[in-house]
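Incident log, structure service

09:12 report received: a user says their structure output differs between two submissions of the same chain.
09:20 pulled the input from the user's history:
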Amino acid sequence: MSQHNFYSLISTRFSGGTPFIRTPDQTDLYSYLDLEQRSAAYAARFSAMGLKPGDRVIVQVDKTPECLFVYFACLRAGLIYLPLNTAYLQHEVAYFIGDAEPSLIVCDPAKDALYRDMAPCPVLTLDANGEGTVTEDTGSAEFETHVSAERDTAVILYTSGTTGRPKGAMITHGNLAANGNALYRAWGWTPGDVMLHALPIFHIHGLFVGTHLAVMTGSPIIFMPRFEPDEVIRLLPSATVYMGVPTNYTRLLARPGLNRDACRNMRLFTSGSAPLLVSTFEEFRERTGHTIVERYGMTETGMNASNPLDGERKPGTVGPPLPGVTAKVVDDAGNEVPSGVTGDLRIKGDNVFNGYWRMPEKTAEEFDPEGYFKTGDQASCDEDGYISIVGRSKDMIITGGLNVYPKEVELVIDQVGGVLESAVFGIPDADFGEAVTAAVVADVGATIAEQDIIDVLKENLANFKVAKRVYFVEELPRNTMGKVQKNILRDRFSRQ
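09:34 re-ran on a clean worker, output below:
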């Protein structure tokens, strides 16, 4: 069998002594030789524990270089890496454990006992300083990377479902290679680039795009534990590439230190995970002299489209499809629509995932007869092939670059005493892109306050899913089929 393990691809692109991870104070913390040796040591340890290719490893820890070594170790050993947002609460994590049936869990030491109670598998720890039981008893610094097929699953990323049941998107070694190769060519990545990394590493933006492109060229990463606007501005002169979500850019623009001098060494700014306002695009260009490259991707596909490195970068668009990606915009009957007409966006290519974990029926529903993935996004395409994302047919909310499915929030609200029904939707927000918002119909005589709803949401959901505002209404607007018209709610409460 040919070797398609993604680690085997990237390991041919870097040399051992060059810097891999730099700290914000510009110390070279780890080299690419360290990446090779530490990932080998972890892979050897996991294999010695009895883990076999195809076993799942759940990781819910803070962002540290050590977490990256664990990730690459899982790839090397043929294990399936399953990162979880650190904001997920106990009952959310319990669902992932039951669904994925992991063979190993790596968590924050503060959650060690909790995980041991929930999981019938070994639990190791890793704290915010990169220390924990996972770093103990690592043996040999040599490991022969497992031979993986192109369609072998490398990573499972959970994305919330419209029914409230999260779905595990199976990302293959071939998907990672296809997306990585397309992006590093499209964005002109070279070994001389320095990535300023301020994204989380539990989703595709920070883990795949922000990390893979650097290792594919053996270039350094300035590794920030979290996004802090003043710190990003301080570090920009030491970097050449920065990737952010729209919320990051609005917060950077709120700082007077963001100017042309701070960006003097920068080559590329990219934005994704949510639509970038045209006003943000224009203000950033005026302040810095740089034009943001807006791109479009999703959990199931990685990156699909990007404004060009060389060529016109159109505000309000995500550019044409990347090489190897085919896109079409269709009407309700599945027929392609003319340029400028809005319809359902569908994607096809080697970047598209291998289906949902243990959900074959759901997987089949999400592909059309020609093999195109139904993104659920409403889009139009102009005469130059540039795609504009105009809405989401599945009502997903993207807040601060993170996905929230309304049904998951509605299920919690509807359990509150005195609530008759609810509708959750997103409204434009200058900071977060979209703010999670709820409209609630209360039972006759019920006395419920906005804070009551918010408190219950905080107890049951990760913080980014909690509604920022709750409005009480006499009834929810519905069409003739009885479906709640969330567009009316969006319009109404966007003006308040």
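09:41 both user submissions now match this output. Likely a transient worker issue. Closing.
09:42 reviewer note: The two ends are 60 Å apart (CA to CA). The longest helix spans residues 32-48.
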